[in-house]
# Entry
Amino acid sequence: MKKTDQDNRDKNQAERLRKTLKSFGINTSEELDQALAASLDAMTIGIMTDVITAPAHSA
# Structure
């Protein structure tokens, strides 16, 4: 079966993602799941504690 350009791009993209995740210490799918859950928790807390300021209106 002949590889297409898309197959090569997909493989290269997957390899870049693997290297990026590894640089963050994420080597398994379980570690990725834990990291995603932790980052979602952090974003949720950040949204819930974000101060909302409304611009002043001039009359």
Notes: The chain has a mean pLDDT of 87. The helical segments are 5-23, 29-49. The radius of gyration is 20 Å. The CA atoms of residues 35 and 57 lie 42 Å apart.
